[in-house]
Design brief:
Order of helices and strands: HH
Strand content: under 5%
């Protein structure tokens, strides 16, 4: 930020530059041979007012830094999944066809050939017996595997928003010196035509 002020007398301007502290303190720089720093030592004699000052030996600089984000991920246990097998029962009904035996009485006439042989026998009591049978349901239980159930861990990717505040160092320039007059551009030198 440059602030403009009214021009002051030359003597006052020299006195101001010798007493005012700069807004940014320069970093000490050493000469190439490493003998003395670029700034004047404390034992150097004071320059008289109005004396010409030498050009600075190097630029004054400040390093600006900023915060940045380094986001990584790490694993955390969020829970467990279990397989538990338990037994339930239900009542079922099935219709099963079964076969049963029964007797039916049939009366048949006696033929002429049979009649002659039967009349020669004595009359007597007799008992004939037949066994009747029936089917009954027989229930047998057995185990039959029907399916396999397993837990498979799958990974999927989702996005989460990370909000963080980052700081950055900025530089602001305060220049209290009067603005230099604008220079008019010099014309380029003309080369003679050969």
């Amino acid at each position: 930020m440059r602030t403009l002020s009214t021009p002051a007398p030359a003597a006052t301007a020299v006195a101001t530059t010798t007493t005012a502290a700069p807004a940014v303190e320069p970093k000490p720089q050493s000469v190439a041979n490493g003998s003395a720093p670029a700034t004047a030592p404390a034992t150097a004699p004071e320059r008289p007012a109005g004396a010409a000052t030498s050009a600075p030996s190097g630029p004054v600089e400040i390093t600006c830094r900023e915060e940045r984000l380094d986001i990584t991920t790490e694993w955390h246990a969020v829970g467990t999944a279990k397989l538990r097998k338990y037994v339930t029962s239900e009542q079922i009904e099935r219709r099963v066809p079964v076969v049963r035996e029964r007797v039916r009485v049939e009366r048949m006439p006696v033929s002429e050939a049979e009649r002659a042989s039967l009349t020669e026998k004595e009359i007597a009591e007799a008992v004939e017996e037949v066994t009747l049978r029936e089917e009954r349901p027989v229930v047998r239980k057995y185990l039959a595997p029907i399916e396999r159930v397993r837990l498979v861990v799958e990974r999927y990717t989702a996005e989460e928003v990370v909000r963080e505040e980052l700081r950055r160092e900025q530089v602001e320039v305060h220049d209290d010196t009067p603005a230099a007059p604008a220079e008019t551009p010099r014309p380029a030198a003309m080369r003679p035509l050969s």
